[in-house]
Design goal:
This is Oxidoreductase. Helix content is 47%, strand content 15%. It is an alpha/beta fold. It has one domain: NAD(P)-binding Rossmann-like Domain (Rossmann fold). The chain has a seven-stranded parallel beta sheet, sandwiched between helices. Helix 1 links the parallel strand 1 and strand 2. The longest helix has 29 residues. The chain starts with a strand and ends in an 8-residue tail after the last strand. The mean pLDDT is 94. The protein binds nicotinamide-adenine-dinucleotide (NAD). Nicotinamide-adenine-dinucleotide (NAD) binds next to helix 1, strand 2, helix 5 and strand 5. The site of nicotinamide-adenine-dinucleotide has 32 residues, from helix 1, strand 2, helix 5 and strand 5.
């Protein structure tokens, strides 16, 4: 990944953090660590710098659910670093705390349209905002990698997370269509669909031994995933070795969903 500029959204913790570190390890020139919590972005950018392998970690505070924030960030990154070559749309769920994410789970009939907005914004609109903003750079360079982190909820459907499931499915559909438009510029667009991963957003599950045992039993591999179970595949999809792979969704799910 010599000379590549990578940007990972929501990279201040969890899966995004592991992806940022994996892209740095793989030799990106610059890894932009986005998060809307500034302190989280800063800490992970420092971790990148501390690897001491010549990769620059750059924290960037921006809310990717807002088009104005996205354009500000990409204009700024473009003028400082020339382009974004690898975009990982990882920011998801909704909110900053476990309570925001897990506490919101309820049956669709009990939800109110006012509650849907935050979930649709970050899980569906944000990947489109980011992609729209970076595509002119990638098209100009005739090279690009866009990797969208979705959930198996978007493929098999998850009760009590119906809006989230729909938003993630939307991102998968968007990715498939876009892949067909931009392939001629050597830009690939793929998704990774996750099962439960041990991150701060699911700490209420992981911290409860009974719940964790019950959850792990649902997986053929008898454990939930770790962020590093995801980051290797994302780093591969970002590499030149994946240059003939586009429009696909790969499950990283411990065997939870076995789709053809
Ligand atoms: N953890 C899981 O079990 C799981 C399962 C399936 C899919 N996923 C998906 O994987 C991705 C990462 O999940 P995670 O568990 O690591 O999440 P997390 O909630 O632990 O971390 C997400 C990070 O993104 C940041 N963020 C959230 N919204 C943002 C926004 N609008 N702009 C900028 N930053 C924002 C948060 O501050 C946080 O630091 C998400 O897209 C999520 O939907 C996670």
């Amino acid at each position: 990944m010599d000379e590549r500029v990578a940007l990972v959204t929501g990279a201040g913790q969890g899966v995004g953090r592991a992806i940022a570190l994996a892209l740095a390890r793989q030799g990106a020139k610059i890894v932009i660590v986005n998060d809307y919590v500034e302190e989280r972005a800063r800490r992970v950018a420092e971790e990148v710098a501390a690897m001491d392998i010549g990769v620059q970690g750059v924290p960037y505070q921006a809310n990717v659910s807002l088009w104005t924030d996205v354009t500000r960030m990409i204009d700024d990154v473009g003028s400082k670093f020339g382009s974004v070559d690898v975009l990982v749309n990882n920011a998801g769920n909704a909110g900053q705390t476990v309570e925001d994410v897990i506490g919101w789970s309820r049956e669709f009939v009990e939800t109110d349209p006012d509650h849907w907005r935050a979930w649709v914004d970050v899980n569906f609109l944000a990947p489109m905002y980011m992609t729209r903003a970076v595509l002119p750079h990638m098209i100009r360079h005739e090279w690009g990698r866009i990797i969208n982190v979705i959930s198996e909820a978007g493929r098999v459907g998850e009760p009590r997370l119906v809006v989230y499931s729909g938003a993630k499915a939307g991102t998968a559909g968007f990715s498939r269509a876009l892949a067909k438009e931009v392939g001629r510029y050597r830009i690939t667009v793929n998704c990774v669909a996750l099962g439960t991963i041990d991150t701060p957003s699911v700490s209420s599950v992981v911290g409860d031994a009974t719940l964790l045992k019950k959850m792990s039993a649902r997986y053929p591999l008898k454990r939930i995933g770790q962020p590093e179970d995801v980051s290797g595949l994302v780093a591969f999809l970002a590499s030149d070795n994946a240059s003939w792979i586009t429009g696909q969704t790969y499950g990283v799910n411990g065997g939870y969903a076995t789709l053809p």
